[in-house]
Amino acid sequence: MKIAVVGTGYVGLVSGVCFSEFGFSVICIDNNVSKIEDLKKGVVPIYENELDKLMLKNMNAGRLSFTSDIAEGVRDADIVFIAVGTPSKTDGSADLSYVYGAVDELAPHMNKNAILVIKSTVPVGTTRAVKQFLQDNGFDIEVAFNPEFLREGAAIEDFMRPDRIILGIESKKAEDALKRAYRPLFVLSIPIVFTGLETAELSKYAANAFLAMKITFINEVANLCENCGADVKEVAYAIGLDKRIGEQFLQVGPGYGGSCFPKDTSALNDFSKNFGVSMPLVEETIKSNDARRIKMIQKIMGVCDNDVKNKNISILGVTFKANTDDMRDSPSICIVNHLLKNGAKIKIYDPSFSEQAKKIFKDAEWSNNAYDNCNGADVVVILTDWAEFRAINLADLRRRVKNPLLVDLRSIYTVNEAKASGFVYCSVGRPFIEG
What we know:
Layout: E1 2-6, H1 10-21, E2 25-29, H2 33-40, H3 51-60, E3 64-67, H4 70-74, E4 79-82, H5 97-106, E5 115-118, H6 126-136, E6 142-145, H7 155-160, E7 165-168, H8 172-181, H9 183-186, E8 192-195, H10 197-228, H11 232-240, H12 261-271, H13 280-303, E9 312-316, H14 331-341, E10 345-349, H15 355-360, E11 365-366, H16 370-373, E12 379-382, H17 394-400, E13 405-408, H18 415-420, E14 424-427
Parallel strand pairs: 1-2, 1-4, 2-3, 4-5, 5-6, 7-8, 9-10, 9-12, 10-11, 12-13, 13-14
Helix pairs in contact: 1-3, 10-12, 10-13, 12-13, 13-14
């Protein structure tokens, strides 16, 4: 089987590499010529654990290649996956121009027996509309929908051993082709669920919106904990033991960000109205998450007596989550820019050494490790829960800072750990603790 993947962003590149690891012949296509040239040289444009090694392995085996020529890329493919971006418009709706642009460009060159599979996250009804678009332009191409559920930082594992595979189809032909593509997972007893097009499309949005609500819920519980004397970490652990709830996505912090949850909750809230349905839970999730960033700013400003001018503030972690260099809609953008605007002197250390972040925070100083970053700091702020921040020697850190003020927006440390090291400790979902 030959597979073509249109789009070499996060989803497209990971999917292409993993399909080639399954043993299929895969060609990844992108109209960004310089990006394709880099990929041909083995240069991975995203920060994802093990992706570079897996990509080179399959390139060397002759199973994986790259091109900027879409006609060449799709001509001999049995399945063509579209994995281009669907960013949010200013009104919150999904921008489908990249999807339709790709469909319009590839349709004349596809093998007539091939299956076109949309992997991009698209509003309900889009796959059917694409099918109609093709028919209206004289192309008899079978179209299916296959949502992705990849977590940044764990994408290879998520693709190779997913919780489930959702496949929206309307024909035996599409079912048979996708069964072949995912046979390596089927033999591992991974659930493969065949549904209608609309069900598959909505399953993606429903999953992300539910997880976003879960994050928002525990952050709201954290607000209550700070005022009533409870510990949100212990509350989260206690409720997470309930199998109906589960422990995942109950980690407190400055709110969700990244490329999926913000745009998908906004798009779901938007397109649901097209079907005459309001989704107040989703709408309130969006509002609460936006407010969360303001509350984190207030927390930092509060411990600084609402004056950060000329204060040396050490920021540990700025990517939206650990194990990625992705800055898309990261809470740090709002928080750090507010501090800079109010005259703070910002030093940043992020283990990803994100080039995106360096472009965003041009007025900040950058460090090569956490300890150097905190030298002479008036305030240390933990923004992203990278694993290495969990093992910081707080006693050593205390000797390096100018003022022993630690603002832990991920509540990584226990109150006793911070207090024993001599820090004045401000975390999320627990009372403020003097050193």
